[in-house]
């Protein structure tokens, strides 16, 4: 499966630098390359509300799902699992993450000493 993504300033964000398969850049997040997307003849386009201005163009190319860019990553993970028919794998990723966070919280609770804080607030009338 080939990978395609949008970048920033005509480059992939640093956190995507280690993706396998050298993904093809389809323009920037702010300005996707509509012609390049059209040439791929996609079955499905997954966009965010950041691309609201070109939603009609994307919809004319293929079915388009628009995600809320401020949505929690776990919710997006589960939606992607549903779209790809991989609900169990998506749920496992979320469950593994939650388990790891829970374990870390327990470890931190053992090392953090409860402290009391005192704040002074000065208000001028």
UniProtKB/TrEMBL annotation:
Keyword Coiled coil: yes
Coiled-coil ranges (or none): 87-114
Localization in the cell: Cell membrane
PROSITE patterns (UniProt xref): FE_B12_PBP (PS50983)
Keywords: Coiled coil, Signal, Transport
Species of provenance: Alkalicoccobacillus plakortidis
Protein family (similarity comment): Belongs to the bacterial solute-binding protein 8 family.
Protein name, per record: ABC transporter substrate-binding protein
Positions of the Fe/B12 periplasmic-binding domain: 1-125
SUPFAM superfamilies for this protein: Helical backbone' metal receptor (SSF53807)
Highest taxon in the source lineage: Bacteria
UniProt main location, coarse: membrane
Membrane topology designation: Lipid-anchor
InterPro entries: ABC_transptr_periplasmic_BD (IPR002491), Bact_iron-sidero_bind (IPR051313)
Pfam families recorded: Peripla_BP_2
């Amino acid at each position: 499966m080939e990978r395609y993504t949008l970048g920033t300033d005509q480059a992939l964000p640093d956190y995507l630098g280690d993706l396998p398969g050298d993904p093809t850049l389809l323009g920037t997040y702010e300005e996707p390359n509509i012609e390049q997307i059209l040439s791929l003849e996609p079955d499905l386009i997954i966009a965010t509300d950041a691309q609201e201005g070109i939603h009609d163009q994307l919809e004319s190319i293929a079915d388009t799902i628009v995600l809320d860019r401020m949505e929690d990553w776990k919710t997006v993970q589960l939606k992607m699992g549903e779209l790809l028919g991989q609900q169990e794998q998506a749920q496992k990723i979320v469950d593994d993450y939650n388990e790891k966070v829970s374990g870390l919280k327990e470890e931190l609770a053992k090392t953090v000493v409860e402290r009391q804080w005192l704040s002074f607030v000065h208000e001028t009338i």
